[in-house]
Every structure is written in C-alpha cells, then in structure tokens.
Amino acid sequence: MYQWRKFEFFEEKYGGKAAVPDDISGKIECCSSGRGKVVLGCDNGTVSLLDRGLKLNYQFQAHSSSVLFLQQLKQRNLLVTVGEDEQLSPQSSALCLKIFDLDKTQQEGPSTSTPECVQILRIFTNQFPEAKITSFLVLEEAPPILLVAIGLDNGCIYCIQGDIARERIKRFKLQTHTNNHDKSQSSITGLGFRVDGQVLQLFAVSPSSVALFNLHTQPPSCQILDRIGSNATGVSMSDRSELIIGRPEAVYFYEVDGRGPCWAFEGEKKFLGWFRGYLLCVIADQRTGKYTFNIYDLKNRLIAHSVTVKEVSHMLCEWGNIILIMADKSVLCIGEKDMESKLDMLFKKNLYPVAINIVQSQQADAAATAEVLRKYGDHLYSKQEYDEAMAQYIHTIGHLEPSYVIQKFLDAQRIYNLTNYLEKLHEKGLASKDHTTLLLNCYTKLKDVDKLNLFIKSDDGVGEIKFDVETAIRVCRAANYHEHAMYVAKKAGRHELYLKILLEDLGRYEEALQYINSLEPSQAGLTVKEYGKILIEHKPAETIDILMRLCTEELAKGNSRSTYTSMVPSPVDFINIFIHYPQSLMDFLEKYTNKVKDSPAQVEIHNTLLELYLSHDLDFPSMSLTNLGENGDLGAERPSKSDAISKGKSNGGAIKDQTDLEEKDRQERRRKGLNLLKSAWPSEVDQPMYDVDLSIILCEMNSFKEGLLYLYEKMKLYKEVIACYMQAQDHEGLIACCKRLGDSGKGGDPSLWADLLKYFGELGEDCSKEVKEVLTYIERDDILPPILVLQTLSRNPCLKLSVIKDYIARKLEHESKIIEEDRQAIEKYQEETTAMRREIQDLRTNARIFQLSKCTACTFTLDLPAVHFMCMHSFHQRCLGDNEKECPECAPEYKTVSEMKRSLEQNSKNQDQFFQHVRNSKDGFSVIAQYFGKGIISKTSTGPAGA
C-alpha cells in the first residue's frame, strides 16, 4: 500500500463548510440515503429528511424514544425504521418496526405534516425472544415483497418476509453454527444480501465467523466461510456482490465459496463502503487518535483521494457524492472529478498506463479510450520506442484516422511497424483501397512471400475477404506476382480479372478456355464477351466451340422451351468479338444456323451472314501450303497477308495461287449467299427471315446480280428485274425474263414488253433480231397500238423499216378488217334507226286498227270492256287489274332498256370509274369512243353565268 501512488481524483464540495442543520437537535443514531435524499434518525425518536444542499426538508416523530436503525428503500418511496416506543405491557418489547409511505402525508398541526405510517410490527414475539439488535438490513425483492434481516447480539438473525405493509408476512430465524458462549463473540456485526438470478443468499458477519445463508433452500442452509470475523461495524458489499470486511491488518473480500483477495491497509477500519468501483475506508490511527478517509482504486492500485478527518459517525453515498457525517455534526461531501480532469492530471505526469487503466475501468466510451491510447502512442513515438508506440496505435483502430498513424511510419526503416498496423487494419475490416495498396507494396518491398501468401491465401472463405479485391490484384500484377493475383480473383469470384491475368499477362489461352468452360453459363457468357477478341485471335476453333455450347440447347436440357429462350444467349450478343476476324464469325454463324433452326435472333444472324457472304474482301487468311499445319487445320495460327505475299515472292507462283484461292472462296461465298436468300424465304411465307431492304442494299453494294434478281422477283418488282438486265446489257436474259414475267396468264406484267421495246428504241445500236421477237409478243397480247410502236422505235437510228414492215402490214390489215366490220355495223344501225323513225312517224300521224279477237293474257274471246296498247296487244280490262298504263307483255323489255339508260346516266357522273377504265385499257381511245357512243359524255350543259 505504501508504494501506491496518491492522486486527487476527488474534491470537496460546498467548500468544506457543510453541516447538519441546527434543527436536528438529537444525537444521530442512524442514517440512510436514496431517491435523492438523506434520512437521519436521532435518539429523540425524530427522523429528518435532507435535500441535495443538506437543507432540512422536513422532520417528523417516528418513534417515541429513539430511532435505532432505518433504511430508505430505492424502488418505492418507503422508509423502514426500527426504534423504541412505549411498552404496551411489561411482557412486550418496546422495539418495533415501522414503515412510512413518504408519498402520503397527514397533518399533525397547523404547520407540520408527517408521512403516513402504513405498518407497525413488533419485532420480538414469544417465538422470537428479545435480544439486542446489532445490525439491520432490508432487501426489496419484487415490490411489495420485502425481506428484513435483523441481526442480534446472540448470533441469531430474525427475518421478516412478505408484504409487510399489509402484514402478509412470514417470520423465520437464522442461526450461525457457533459454539461460542461468549456473547460478545457471537454478536451479528454486519449483514449483506447477495442476489444471483433466482438464488438469494445472506452474508452474516460476527466477531468469530463469516457465514453465508442460502435462503433459496428450505430450510435455509448455513455455510461458514471463515472462522475469523470482525468486531467493527465496517461491513459493505461490492458491485460484484462480494462481502467486504475490515480488520485492523487488512480489508478482506468474501465470495460464496470463501475468502477472496485481501488488501493490507493497516489501521482500525471504522467504516467501509463501495462507490463506483472505489473502496471507501475510514481508518483510525490508535497512536495519534486521528482519522483518515481513503478512497482506493484497487484495480489500478492507486489511492484516488486521501484526507484527514475528524471522528466520523456515519458514512453514506448519494447524489454521486460521498457524505461523511462527523461526531460534531459537521459534514464532509466529496465528489469525483470529471474524467478529463483526472486524465489531464495523469498526462502531466506521463502516467499514460494509469490513464488507460482508469478509462477502461470506468467503462468510458471507446472514442475516449482511443484518445488516451493515441496520446500514449505519441509519447512513446517521441521517445523513439516505435514498437511500443505501434502497439498502442493498433488499439485505436476503428476510432483514430489511420492516416494519422501511417504518416508517422512511412519511413523505410519503420516499414515493419507499418506492415503490422496495416495487417491489423485489414483484420478488422476497416481498410480502404489505399491501405490494401500500401500493405501489398510493403510485402513486395520486403520480398516477404510468406506474409504475402498468408495475407492473400488466408482461409477466410469466399465472401469474407478483408481487403479490396481489385486493388490487391492491381498491385500484385504490377509487382509480377501473377499467381497471387489469380488466386485472389478466383477466390473472390472475379472471373473477368482472373481471365485478364491469364490472357494479358501470362498468355495461357488453353487454361483460360478451360476456366471459362468450368464457369456457370451466365458468367461464362459475360467473360467471353469481354475477352473473346483475344481468344478468337489465338484460339478461334476452341472459342467457337465454347460459343456453340453457350448459345445452343446444351445448357438448357430439361427446361421448357420458354425457359430456354430466356436463358440461352443469342449469337448476336457475341458478334462484336469477331470484329477483326470475319472468317471465324462466318464459321460460327454457319455452325449455329445448321444446329438451331428456329432461333429468336434468326433475322439478325441471316443479315450478318449475308453481309459476310457478299463482301468482296473478307480478309481471307493466307492458305498457301507454307502456313497449313501438318494435319491441314485451318484454325491454327495463321501468318499475316503481308508475310504470305513476301513468302510468295520467293516462292514464285504463290501469289497467283493466293489470288485464285481468294477468287474461288468469293465465288463459294456468293453461292452460299444466294442459297441463304432462297432458303430463308420459302414460297409459302410472305416475309423472309432476313431484312429485305438491307439485303437489296448489300447486293447493290457488292454487285451481286443473282441476289438482286431473286429479291426483286420475290417482291414482284418486275420492272427492277428487267432494269438489272438492261444495266448489264444482257439482251438474251432480258427477253427470257420478259417471257417469264410478262405473261398475264401466269400472273405476270405484260407492260414489261412495252418497257423492253422502249429500251431497244433508245439503245442506239442494231438490235433487229430482238426487236422482232419483242414485237411478236406485243402483237400477240395487243399491248401497244402501232402508232406508239412506231414512235418508240423511231428513236433508234440503227433500226431499218424492214424490221417492222411485216408487223405494220399485219396491223393495217387487221385495222382494215375492223373498219369494214364497223362500217357494216353502222349501216345496219342506220337502217334500223330509219325504220324506227318511220314507225314513230306513222304512230303520230295515222290511226291504228286493232283487230285482235282474243285477250293476249287469257286467250279468251275479247269482249268489252277491253284495253288496246300501241304495241298491238289487247287485253280484257279485268285481266289487267290496276296496271292499265303498261302492256304486261312489253313492260319487262321496256324496263330493261330504262334501267340501262338510267345506269348510263349514273355512270356519266362517276368520273373515277371512267378514268380507271382508261388507265386499265390497252387502248384508251377506244374506251373514250365507247363512252361517246353510249351517249354518256356527249351531252353538254351550260351552267349559270357566275359559275
């Protein structure tokens, strides 16, 4: 103890001038505290309550004689007292126990009030004989249940348990197992309750023993913890439910299994207490007669406060202060200083370990502890004790900014300390990308492969990596630790980074392909999209095999069709990786289309294939014998075209072979392109499985005549078909095309012959043979009138009249025959018209004699009344009925003529129909003449003047 440091962690309150109020005149026999007040019991039977400033709140008469013991309860505002009252009879004891409810008051006079006394109990009964009370303690179990323990000078302990306020109680007695007949050695000098869950225990101290009663058992069992007790009343309980006993030589701690640690503090222990982890002790020096009040910090082995005091009569704690009541009624209040003041005091003396222990024992927050550790670390760093300083800085991780520490240890000579700090930072998962970079750089600078392995290949499991993966990989790659970088990437599931190292740093293409094959389909697809260009460049055949596995049903066996469609990627997704290798792209798409016939991306695939087939320059690789493998594998590494040409020069005929090979390949691709156009547009469907407009553009750009002709013909663009032949000046093909497409009986367009004739008329060269053949079909189908034929052919100066002489002769003869037929028809119509006019004139001027003797309708003899019509039909009037104005025999014919006339008049107003007939007719003039002949458009009318 004499080696313990002394500090002033406590200070006196109220300027050291506090005292018990003068209103309290009696001698203070007992005291208690709780619920923000101090309660004093005097020998005159009064109880006084003091507030925070030690001012008298109020005072009341609790007992008639003296208050021996009292205790302020914590959970309820009740006060339990033991004192002397008037004896009811000579046989009864004057001692009684009272319970006061401090929340309820009753008026005692005009100016005073007293708390309500809710219960009075006689302590001693016939079963519990009277003895001197030496100790008193109340335990609040579960309100309103109380357990009152009363220690007697005969070694017994009387217990009262239950709802005492309602007198629902039970009494029982505890007896220590001592055979000592000396009453002074068996007196109970101290009591202490220990509650451990459901287990309730009671410590009992006498001058000759320390006992422990287990109240959880029935009957309660007694265990003697020590055969040496204590005469002093200085008994207390620590915050860990340890019993504290003071003896002249030391202070002893007792637990349930016996004596625990002891502390050798010499002197008579007048009072013991426990306050916030501190041991309070009032020690009397028998030689000098002085009293010393010490506050011990047992954990940190220091004296937090020491002061010489007068004779102490009572000690208690309230309001966060320690209150000492002296025999002369003066009061000493001592309060603990704040943490900052205590730490400043220690920092000035460089007692950093003590400061750390204090903040930890006081359960300060982690930030405050870290600040103390930082200052300690700074102190050690200034003394160049770098290892010890780093040990302190490591404890601040999570609260101190790492850059503060890192900047101090960036010197190369202290790289080991920096490495240690960064490792701890990663272990706690608080490292950033920069910290990971710095740590890995430290490992690489130190060439410490073992630690690098331990850091990278720790068995934490995937998902628990305590560093930034990308940063670790980047640093390892930069330091040429590729295997470590690959391990991190694989462990973290960063497949793209793993492949990046394999392909870009190590060039291990076979291993990369095997790794991709081992991945899940979705992940494999992502990695191929990112690194497919490199793989296609070096391993085209193997890469195509992987793509085929990804894009076909092999990955979706057992799934429904809809699930397959949504799962399996489309080949279109991978087209970008073939950007410099169209030949490989063509191989891939051909394999795919041969295997999958109904892909959702069929249109895009066919469009791409068509573009590859029709391209003039596909960068076809050199295929000379010098760059074929022994087994003729075209997928092997191929030299560039320039290398092949340079080799060809030395080889003589290699360049010619190369050119022939390229031309042969071009012709083969065009054949495939035409087959694709035909197979992807079956005759039974309206729309092809490719973009028609794009296909036409590709065929135009690459001068693919066969494809253009097929597409135009499928789209029924016959004029564009013959335009292709005209552009190529393929006269034979042009005529053959018109024969096939210009037959109206087979759904063709006869007007093609007119376009063909116009072409030959504007050709500017002798094409007599072709013109004669064209005229044959024009004459057969009567496509053009002769005048237009003459006008069209007259533009070609190279054609002679003999070309069309026979055609003109036949047409003139035919026209003459038509004219003669028309003249005869005219004469016939004129004769009929003349006869009709004579008949009309005869009807107007001469009388008609009706000689019919029979009715036309019923064929009976005609009698009156009869009706005669000008058409020479006669009827009975009864046979006509109501229709007397029309001849029943002639009316149908007349109606037909009338309807025809009405229809013609109606048609004369339908101009659209007229023009449509003109457009659709081979000879528009004849249509107009026919309309004039029917009298539809011959009538003219003059509108209003202002029209």
Question: Quick summary of this structure?
Answer:
Helices cover 42% and strands 21% of the residues. Strands 1-26-25-24-23 form a five-stranded mixed β-sheet, with no helix packed on it. Strands 2-29-28-27 form a four-stranded antiparallel β-sheet, with no helix packed on it. It has a four-stranded antiparallel β-sheet with strand order 3-4-5-6, with no helix packed on it. The longest helix is centred in the last third of the chain and has 44 residues, at 802-845.
Helices and strands, with pairings:
Blueprint: E1 5-6, E2 10-12, E3 28-34, E4 37-42, E5 46-50, E6 56-61, E7 67-72, E8 78-84, E9 95-107, E10 113-122, E11 133-140, E12 146-152, E13 156-163, E14 168-175, H1 183-186, E15 190-196, E16 199-206, E17 209-214, E18 221-226, E19 235-237, E20 243-246, E21 251-255, E22 258-263, E23 268-275, E24 278-284, E25 291-297, E26 302-309, E27 312-318, E28 321-326, E29 331-336, H2 339-348, H3 352-361, H4 366-382, H5 386-395, H6 402-408, H7 415-427, H8 433-446, H9 449-456, H10 469-478, H11 482-491, H12 495-506, H13 509-518, H14 521-538, H15 540-551, H16 561-567, H17 582-595, H18 602-614, H19 641-651, H20 654-679, H21 692-701, H22 705-714, H23 718-728, H24 731-741, H25 751-761, H26 768-781, H27 786-793, H28 802-845, E30 866-868, E31 874-876, H29 877-880, H30 891-907, H31 911-920, H32 924-933
Parallel strand pairs: 1-26
Antiparallel strand pairs: 2-29, 3-4, 4-5, 5-6, 7-8, 8-9, 9-10, 11-12, 12-13, 13-14, 15-16, 16-17, 17-18, 19-20, 20-21, 21-22, 23-24, 24-25, 25-26, 27-28, 28-29, 30-31
Helix pairs in contact: 2-3, 3-4, 4-5, 5-7, 7-8, 8-10, 10-11, 11-12, 12-14, 13-14, 14-15, 15-17, 17-18, 18-20, 18-21, 20-22, 21-22, 22-23, 23-24, 23-25, 25-26, 26-28, 31-32
